[in-house]
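FIELD: query
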Amino acid sequence: MCRLLPPSPSPYPTSPLYAPIGARARVLQILSELVSLWFQGEDIFLGPDAWFTWATLLGWLFFVGVWLYRMNEALSLCVSRVGNRADH
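FIELD: result
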């Protein structure tokens, strides 16, 4: 079992780490609303309010990139700990 964070005496020191989860969920809600407008015939990619679509897509890509980076770092910690075991 990989333990990435040391145990904390209270839940408050680690709570800022979970803020991007809520932000990513909100961005996905906005994207789903934009896709439903697109299916209704609105021009969300080149219309007068297209900047909002592109800003939302870029925000989603940013959060996904941060998540993938952090997941890769966490998995590499687990692999390095398992690879250093002497009982192989």
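FIELD: remark
The chain has a mean pLDDT of 74.
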